[in-house]
Amino acid sequence: MAKKVVATLQDKSKLKNYSKVVKAVKSPKTGAYTFKEEMVPVELVKDVLKA
After folding, report:
1. What gap in Å lies between CA 9 and CA 5, rounded to an integer?
2. Which of 5, 31, 39, 42 has its CA at 20 to 30 Å from residue 17's CA atom?
């Protein structure tokens, strides 16, 4: 028998659109670049990229 996927019940008014932000950060010790990833609400993407 095939398994059914059970959807979770969520209030859609509480859900926010999120975006994945990937920033390149240069290490002061080695000079190599590393990548920092974080999920942020769409409204705050510009604020996160400024910092």
Report:
1. 13
2. 5
